[in-house]
Amino acid sequence: MPDPVLTDFSSIPERPTKASVLQACTLLNPLTEAQREDLIESSFMAYAERGELIWHAGSPAEYAAIIGVGFIKMTKLNPSGQEMAVELLGPGQCLGLMVVLEGRSFPLSALAATHCWYMKASARNLIAAYQANDKLKDQVVRNLGPRLRRAHDMMSRLSSGKVEQRIAAILFILADSYGARNGHAINIQVPLTRQDIAEMAGTTTETSIRVLSKWQKEGVVATDKHLISILDEAKLTEVMSQ
């Protein structure tokens, strides 16, 4: 009989509070104080290890997920049966909301790209809040178009079989959601390990280390602990389009 798999508890990120997770989700900012308290009361925090399936495509949408720590990727099967990343979501972002509001089954699978904490927000309470809050309706509609464009952009960028192109695409996608300009540099303001980037790009940690070390020597990126900055946007764009 094989030995049981043991969880490395030292690698589990600190659990955030439900209130802090909901506060960081700008999409749900229009919630009234009463709706916010109701959603916090009816929801709970869940933990997923890297690679863990959060929901299957086709499963009923009983909750939406608001990410507190880490990254979750939305995936679908391509015609050859391979899993393909469609969207990458991180802290402060909500997944599954439109599906919940429309009462459909999830069209995509959700997979933890890194160790993560996420808030499972009750479908019933989200629907009630949406129906009673015109400002929330407007916010969701305004968010839909840009998010669809980002998802399409990610699919096209990650369709390449070259590792360097995929890692470059991941950095640009993260910079789009979490980047802050500092002169010519773009600082990605979420901590990322080489393993995190490898998992999101579908490669090994060793390859991720090799590629980022090469780019750092060439002045394309810079790293400070687990924070990454894009220093040469033109060069990274060139890598991605090769």
Describe it.
Strands 1-8-3-6 form a 4-stranded antiparallel sheet. It is globular and about 55 Å long. The termini are far apart. 36% of the residues are buried. Helix 6 crosses helix 7, helix 6 (163-178) packs across helix 9 (233-241) and helix 7 (194-201) crosses helix 8 (205-217). The longest helix has 24 residues, at 134-157. The protein has 242 residues and is of the alpha+beta class. It has helices spanning 18-24, 33-42, 97-102, 123-132, 134-157, 163-178, 194-201, 205-217, 233-241; strands spanning 44-48, 53-55, 63-69, 72-77, 83-89, 94-95, 109-112, 116-122, 179-182, 185-188, 221-224, 227-230.
Q: Count the DSSP helices.
A: 9
CATH architecture of the largest domain: Sandwich
- Broad CATH class of the largest domain: Mainly Beta
Biggest beta-sheet profile: 4 strands, antiparallel
Radius of gyration: 19 Å
Features:
single chain; Jelly Rolls; Arc Repressor Mutant, subunit A; 2 domains; 4-stranded antiparallel β-sheet; 24% strand; globular
Summarize the SSE layout with pairings:
Layout: H1 18-24, H2 33-42, E1 44-48, E2 53-55, E3 63-69, E4 72-77, E5 83-89, E6 94-95, H3 97-102, E7 109-112, E8 116-122, H4 123-132, H5 134-157, H6 163-178, E9 179-182, E10 185-188, H7 194-201, H8 205-217, E11 221-224, E12 227-230, H9 233-241
Antiparallel strand pairs: 1-8, 2-7, 3-6, 3-8, 4-5, 4-7, 9-10, 10-12, 11-12
Helix pairs in contact: 6-7, 6-9, 7-8
